[in-house]
Design brief:
Pseudouridine synthase, 11-stranded mixed beta sheet, alpha+beta
């Protein structure tokens, strides 16, 4: 697979992850973004040395969108610091199966991951292993029974957007893991897109911003009763 690269220099790679391709996988023979990009770096390197590539953040396998990877240890250290402390912005668009009662708001929950089922759930703050999950959402369009929302992650928990939006009663359309399949829903794929990514370049400190065009007319194409 040829990677869709938006930006590359000696320090970082910013690319578009297709839906269905994992960010990183331990399964033998399963293509993932790490192996695809390592092959790309190796083929374009005159030294033909095993390339260094660090995962900074991940997208769920069904999610399409923007990812940045570090090509050096120094870049990885800087980007990981931004991710946990400042400057790193992950922005999404989601088609929701339902319309939130409040058109804009902040969600704060505690999540716990179950590795056996590769799922997460809302829990109390005193649950062992619980982690705080924060996000901001804003509805930008509605076409009952659906709504289109912009979502900004403030933390990066496992399946966070999918779990929190489902807990609010408006799951991501097409989410077979966390959504309730309603009679009116004919959407077969998860409608969640990582559409904007912002951070500071780990070496030059330049502000970097990347945009991804989400599928056009997603609301207009819906077949509703």
């Amino acid at each position: 697979m040829t990677p869709d690269i938006l930006f590359e220099d000696p320090d970082i790679i910013v690319c578009r992850k297709p839906s269905g391709v994992p960010t990183q996988s331990s399964r033998i023979g399963t293509p993932d973004m790490v192996s695809i990009l390592k092959n790309h770096i190796y083929k374009n390197s005159p030294q033909k040395q095993p390339p260094y590539l660090a995962v900074i953040h991940r997208l769920d396998q069904p999610v399409e969108g923007l990812l940045v990877f570090a090509k050096t240890q120094a870049a990885a250290k800087n980007l990981n610091k931004q991710l946990t402390e400042y400057g790193f912005g992950k922005h999404y668009r989601a088609l929701l199966d339902g319309i939130p009662s409040c058109p804009e708001g902040d969600l704060e929950d505690y999540l716990i991951k179950d590795s056996r089922t590769n799922s997460s759930r809302i829990c109390s703050s005193n649950t062992a292993g619980a982690k705080k999950a924060l996000l901001h959402y804003k509805v930008i369009e509605t076409q009952p029974p659906y709504s289109l929302a912009e979502i900004t992650l403030k933390t990066g928990r496992h399946h966070q957007i999918r779990v929190q939006m489902a807990h609010m009663g408006t799951p991501i359309a097409g989410d077979k893991k966390y959504g309730i399949q309603k009679k009116h829903s004919a959407i077969g794929t998860l409608q969640l897109f990582a559409c904007r990514l912002t951070f500071y370049h780990p070496r030059t400190n330049e502000h970097m911003e990347f945009h991804l065009n989400t599928p056009e007319d997603s609301m207009k194409s819906l077949q509703t009763p």
